[in-house]
Design brief:
The chain is mainly α. 43% of the residues lie in helices and 8% in strands.
Length: 133
């Protein structure tokens, strides 16, 4: 019998979602620096606008992947196992969906503020899947 994927709406998502926004902010800040945007105030303003707009899209947006297609809704979830090309979804274990009290757009400015203020908690460790697990 196939194992089922367990999708949960847990408050733990709030930290995951905010950390994701800080990772986005760091990547955007690096791209802006590489593109010659020297002003920290300008980079911060761009990050606030971008992260907030993306947050609203994650919270309530939809898109049509092709003309005439039905709309689809983005759902950003987190798992404790990498979904590789050969990973069956049943092997993911718990999938964390947004908790009922979490809204990306509401966390946007705080996440950007934490990054630009140099808050040590805003420095999120990241990596790439290397085949382990």
């Amino acid at each position: 019998m196939a194992k089922t994927v367990r999708v949960v709406r847990d408050d733990a998502y709030e930290e995951m979602g905010a950390a994701y926004q800080r990772v986005l902010t760091a990547a955007l800040d690096a791209a802006l620096r590489e593109s010659g945007v020297k002003s920290a105030a300008t980079r911060r303003k761009v990050a606030e606008s971008f992260v907030f707009a993306l947050g609203e899209f994650h919270d309530s947006g939809w898109l049509r992947p092709a003309e005439g297609a039905a709309p689809v809704y983005p759902v950003l979830c987190f798992t404790e196992r990498f979904l590789n090309v050969d990973t069956p979804p049943s092997a993911l274990g718990t999938v964390y969906a947004p908790s009922p009290g979490f809204a990306f757009h509401e966390y946007a400015h705080g996440s950007v503020e934490a990054f630009h203020a140099g808050d040590p908690a805003a420095q999120i460790e990241t990596g790439s899947f290397g085949g382990e697990g």
